Structure formats: structure tokens, C-alpha cells
Amino acid sequence: PPLRSTQSAAGMEYCAPENQYRVARPIYSHPALEREGERLTRTEKTLKQRLSDKCGSCSRNRALKTFKGVFPVFDWLPRYPIREWLSGDIISGISIGLVCSLQGLAYGLLVSVSPVYGLYSAFFPLLTYFLLGTSRHISVGPFPVTCLMVGSMVLTLAPEDHFLLPANGTSAGNVSDAGVRSLVDTEAMEARRIVVASTMTVLVGIIQVAMGLLQVGFLVRYLSDPLVGGFTTAAACHVLVSQLKTVLSVPTNNHSGPFSIFYTLSDVVVNIRHSNMADVVAGLLTIAVVMVVKEINARFQHRIPVPIPIEVIVVRSVPRNIHYVLYGPSCMALCLTVSRPPSFAPPGAPDTALFPELLGASVSTAVVAYAVAVSVAKVYAAKHDYTIDGNQELLAFGVSNVFCGCFSSFVASTALSRTAIQESTGGRSQVAGVLSALIVMVVILALGQLLEPLQKSVLAAIVIANLKGMFLQVTQVPKLWRQSPADCFIWLSTCGACVVLGLDVGLLVGLLFQLGTVVVRTQFPACSTLGNIPGTNLYRDLKDYKHISEIPGIKIFRCSSPVYFANVDYFKDRLRAAVGFDAVRVFKKRSKALKKIHKLIRKGQLKATETGLVLAEDQSPGMENKGFQSDHDDGGRDYRVDVPVDWTAELPVKVSVPRVDIHSLVLDFSAVSFLDVVAVNRLRLVIKEFLRIGVTVYVTSCHGTEIII
Question: CDD domains from the entry (predicted)?
């Protein structure tokens, strides 16, 4: 088809056939750009200058902007569209308030404290996040993973063994499981566990505030999606096992650390005969009902204006009905119950003496809580077209956790299920969060008696039913394997390490493995030889296309990774394999051949002509040609002579010189983001090696500041 040619303002000519386009433009490398004074000199500001720019001048507008940055609520609340958003926020707030109340009660079991303290964790963080948070859609409150991480430290520092009471002179080691449970000072144990949980929450908040002030929110980027997916799936396994003993109502020992999940499973299997039938039936029925109704809520969310509050329904109806059916109206006392809180717990200071023991677990918990919350917040921010400030989120969650810890609460984060409900029911801002906090407050102060009796097996079953989304992450593994085996191995290794070694150690192992894969992928980068697609100016990998060929005498080599000290030797090996010869060996063989040729010329057996080397016929054998001297005869180390030698033809000496079929080598550095000093020095030697054997080296597509090689 005929070409349609157009000329742009930039001097680019576009010749377009019906389905093809050819673009021609001037090369931007112009001598004028290389003249002295054309290049700008980059100057980096010192730390003092940066601080002076930020703090040196203070105006009313700047102070107001800083204030709104710290308290975003004063930025968006005056512009809150009441008519458009308020009705949706009210419906969403009521729905989330009911869900938060029941999930808070259930997640209290994961922290190994009375479930009533979960209500505090569902109330206090909503207030502070309303003032400091930048996400409009996430539902702040307890999260199963962080609750389990806090609970593991609670069991480590306040196990039941520390609160046993002597009975009739019998040592605690000789009492049965049932007897041991009756000899525990539950009030002292509960008080100590609350101190441990609230102290760890305060420490987590301090760590998050410190990270926010230091502007190190970017560190959470090292927690990739495969790593977080494997970690949360493993955490779901730990949550399932920890709640299984409550659903079955079997006595187990408290285990923490590596292999604790297997020890707990062993105790459950050994003591399964002691299970309570009423709790088993109530738990299994709750799991089935909650999962079915949640699936209905998800599938018909556009038809159901408000999700069915199934948690409230099952907590209110299942315990009474199950016990009435199994035991009759006179046996309600068999149910394991907890009492509701009469009011809010008074504030209290954390036990700072526990900080050294809680520091390691608090760091991992702080990072996980923030990573989960920010990842969920970014999903909904992208969906609704607004931005999230990562460092401000650190400050918001840090202050929330410090505030919560002072009121006997535990670590706050968010959960995808609650956030999905808040968004699907019409929630547009954190006004829905404040309204849900009001619902939780009403439950704490007035409606708690309607939920009695609170059966622990039902609460544990609610926790298990809400793990469905985490377990469904396993379905991502085949897709990850097809897309990137390395990411699939990160998912599997993190999940396996967290299941076997525990969440804190497993997270560290998964992070190290992930960083190891990055090092391995850069240490052994993908290198390829490029060929030309006939009839085009496109160059592609020879292994990817059939009808593709190299330009005779030219080798184009591409490296798809930074070149630095760890992979420069691998780069040299791949380059040697691509060109098909070792430049150093070629040079040595040529030097050896030239040495012998030099001797033959001196003896008169060879004669150098313009066309090459020929056998001498007019000179007797053995007579030396004393008029011939090599250009460089320095003790036998360099025997280059100023004679034409065709290295592709057969040589007159018995030396096997590797064949060199190229005259030019092009190094495509378009995918090389940086070169360190070691790589530059090694590449300089490589280029010299090729130049010594007559191969010209061209380095193309260098990015950033040029490095003279």
C-alpha cells in the first residue's frame, strides 16, 4: 500500500502504510551537546540546606498545610458532601459496628485474654484514625494475624504454669488436666496477660510512630505480595489450630515457638475424647451458617442494601438452641461463657520492664500490621482515585496503638473482609468508622446483656469462618508458578517457614529468602545475543524467533541486569560463550604463532609481503635474516610483527589459533541500570582484551551519568 508521510514540529517523519508505520527522526547525539558549557552540573544540597528549606521560613499557609498534613480530617471534613455521602456512611457504619463488635469478641480469644477486651480494640483505634488517617475506606480494628502474634507473646510471658495454686499438698505436676485448670488463679493470670498485651500494643505503636517520623515507610515495600500472601496463609493455619481446641473444647498445653502448631495439634488429637458435644455441634453449625450467609452477602451485595449480620444472629441464637436441644432447659450452665464488660477499662501505663522481651516480636508485628493496612488502603485508594500517604499512615496507626494500649486493648490494623463490607454498603469516608465506633460503644455500655451467654466455641467458630479469604490465597500459587517461579517459591517458603518456625521467625526467613532471590536473579542475569528481523531495524533474542539472523561480523550482546561486583564474572562468562572464543586465549595463541613466524622470517624460511606471508625460495635454509627485527621484542613476551597475517587462513606454523569471526562487538546496556567501580574496571579490561585481537567494542544505550571505560 502507498505510504502516507507527515512531518511533525520536532522534525520527525512518519510514513504510514495501511497497517505499518515507519518513524524516522534525527539522532539526538549532536556535537553541540558535547561542547563545553552545554551540560548542566548537578549539585546536591547538604542536610543543613534541606533542613533550612523546610524549617527556615514559616508562613501562615505553610503552617496550615503542615497542620492538615498531620491531621487530614481538617482537610477533608469541611468539604464533606453531606447529601451524597452521609446516608451511605450511616448504613455502612451500623453494619460495620455490628461486625466489629462480634469480631472483636472473637479475636480476643486469639490474644488469649477474655473476649470482652476485643470490644475495646474495636472502639479506640477508630477514634484516632479518624483524626490522623488518610484512607477513607479501611475499617480499623483487630486483625487475626496481629492478634495471634500478640497472643503468642502473651502465652510466652504469662503461661498458665505461672499461676497454679497448690491443692491439698499435691504438686501441680501430679494433677490431671482438669485439676490443673481448676487450680489456676484466673484473675491474676487474666490481669497479667492484659498487661503483656497492652504493653506490646504500646511498644508496637511507638515503633510505628518512630518509623513515621524517620520517613521509613518505604521499608514495607520489601514485603512483596507473594511474601505477604504466604505469611497470612500460614497465619490462618495458626489461627485455625489455636481455635480448633476451643471449638472442640479439649484441654491442651500452651505452646509457642518453632513447631508449636504441631504440638497443639498433637494435644488436640490425644485429648479429643474429652471434647464437649454441645460445643462441637455449636461450633460446626456456626462455621457452616456463617460461611454460607457470607457467601450470600457477597454474591447478592447489589441486591441486599445491608449485609445480614450473621455473627450477631448466631451468637444470640446458637448457644441457647443447641443446649436446649441436647440437654434441655435446665442444663444451660454447661456452656462456656464470658461476662460482658460493665464499662470501659480505666487507662493505665504500660509495663516498661517488658519492653526488652517484647522488642523483637513488636518490630515484626508493627511491620506486618502496617503492611496489611497500607496494602488494603492502596487497593481502595486506586479504585476511588485518591492517594495514600504511607508515612502519615504509620503515624496514624502508631498513635492509635499507643492510645489503645493505654486502655487495655491490643494491636489495631485492618481486615479485607471488614473493609470490603464498609465499601460495599456505601461507606465513603471515615465518618462510617466513627459511627461504627458509636455502635461498639453502645454494645459495651448497654447492649452487652443481649449477647449473653457468650459461648467460646461459637466465638472461635466465627474466627475460623472469617479465615476463608486467607485460605483462598492458596489458589494463587498455580498462577504465580506460571507467571514467575521465583515469586511462587517466595510464597511457598514464607508459608512453610511461618507454619513450622512460627510467625515472627518465619517472616524473617521469608524476607531473607526473598532478598536472596533478588540477589540470585541479579547475580545470574539474563544475557542474550540479538539478531536482526529481516526487513526491519528491530533486534531480538535469537532464541525467541525463528526467522532471525545475525549481521555478519557483528555480535550484539545484551545484559538485562545491573552489572556490579557480584555478577561481573558471570557477565564475562556469558559474553565469552556468546562470541564463541576467549579473547585472552586468542591473544596468547596469536602471540605464540607470531613468535614462531618471527623466527621463521629471521631464518629466511618465510617472507612478509603486502598480501601476507609466503615461503622464501631464494634464501638457503638456516640463514638468518638479520635485517628483520620485530617491533616489540622484549624478552619473548610480545611478538607482534608489522606483517599482515590472515588469522582466518591456514598458518605456516603448527599453532592452533581460535577462529575469530567478528570484527565488532556491540554491548547493549539498555537494561543495565548501574555499574559499580568493580564492574567498570573489569569491563575496561574486557574491552582492552578485544581491542588487542582487532575486535572493536561499542557500548550503547547507557543510562544516566556516563562512566568512562
Answer: STAS_SulP_like_sulfate_transporter
The CA dihedral of 360, 366, 369, 375, to the nearest 10 degrees, is -120
Q: Grid coordinates representing 581?
A: 572464543
- Check: CB of residue 463 under 8 Å from CB of residue 109: yes
Residues 165, 185 contacting (CB under 8 angstroms): yes
The three cell numbers locating residue 128? 484516632
d(CA 654, CA 656): 7
Buried b (16+ CB within 10 A) or exposed e, 597-606: bbebbbbbbb
Bond before 356 cis per omega within 30 degrees: no
Query: Could you give the 3-state DSSP secondary structure of residue 526?
Result: coil
> What is the C-alpha separation between 393 and 408, in angstroms, rounded?
22
Distances (CA, A) of 212 to 98, 222, 323, 392, 431: 32, 16, 51, 7, 24
Q: Is a pLDDT exceeding 80 seen at residue 565?
A: yes
Cα of 138 vs its chain's centroid, Å? 20
Say if CB 123 and CB 402 are below 8 A apart: no
Q: Name the pLDDT band for 620 (thresholds 50, 70, 90).
A: very low
Q: According to DSSP H, which parts of 328-389 are helical?
A: 355-384
Please name the residues in contact with 637: beta carbons below 8 A apart, sequence gap of 6 or more: none
Strands (E), 340-462: 413-414
What average pLDDT does this structure show over 510-525?
A: 88
Q: pTM of this prediction?
A: 0.70
